[in-house]
């Protein structure tokens, strides 16, 4: 039946249609929910394909901004804009908006209904890690390397377009089927904002969205300096290093199969009744994330991987690796070398330029890479941080309420 009123009302078993009836979905088939919208599994009646239907909760100013921002950013990230380190860095790393509501051809509300139609993926990284933990089946070395490559390729593409996502986390990393390993893609492009290394960058509606357990330490320090209830009134400079931290946390969690900082956040919030202690611990440059014992444990998995993770998870953002450093790191050298060889033998117009190939051939400061294949044995190591953390349960981590603070937070 066609929708009357807002599509989020009514029975959960009712089949709902978008205006003009091309896409259908049920409220009972909800895939996820964010601040501004809910996502459902649906079907395109014209093609018969399953899709993801992202329905915004209203057509107010914030929802309209998110709606338009996701369309514009998606075109940039999935297009040919920005630098190309090599072919694989641009190959489907961001979810695509395949259709959207429009009024007389102009993107916007259609009969009071604001929505995106997205390509439908498989399990999120959060789902995959929870399943692997439950089954005591760690990711193989090849799977880890492929995931890490995707995470830092996402950060590289964002940086090349002077953008930051600020909410890179396992629930926003979704697997899409393809031959061989799954292709990981970053979703929730509503929150992408411009970066600014030398000036304050304020988003159009003044807000940024992030999840406490995945924010960079410099954002935590800015929040604390502003004081309770004052963060939205202070300036902030958003930098690509913030996305590197978030990607690094995801990369680490894939190794240890634990939602590390989420557990820490929940633990400290329950003990103190506020976010202050977690933010204080996260933002303290003198209290590093890794103890010497943690680093040694990571080295037993792979020494090059340990160096990469430590380099991306340095609380001092001026010493943190950038995205290009990550992609050229020895841990990821097997992939970058394979891409270089493929590009050099290809006559495709998509091949990298000579200068980009030169970048790939530059020597890394780290030692020679430890080769691995898809047949590598999974490795599970008991790794603890400086602060004691609650062991992850078999269930997915509970959703942590996103904070919304103004882009005016002083670094």
TrEMBL record:
Residues 342-411 are annotated as: Disordered. SMART domains: S_TKc (SM00220). Residues 25-332 form the Protein kinase domain. InterPro entries: Kinase-like_dom_sf, Prot_kinase_dom. It comes from the Eukaryota. Residues 342-356, 366-375, 389-411 have a biased composition (Polar residues). PROSITE patterns: PROTEIN_KINASE_DOM. It holds the Pfam family Pkinase. This is Protein kinase domain-containing protein. It comes from Durusdinium trenchii.
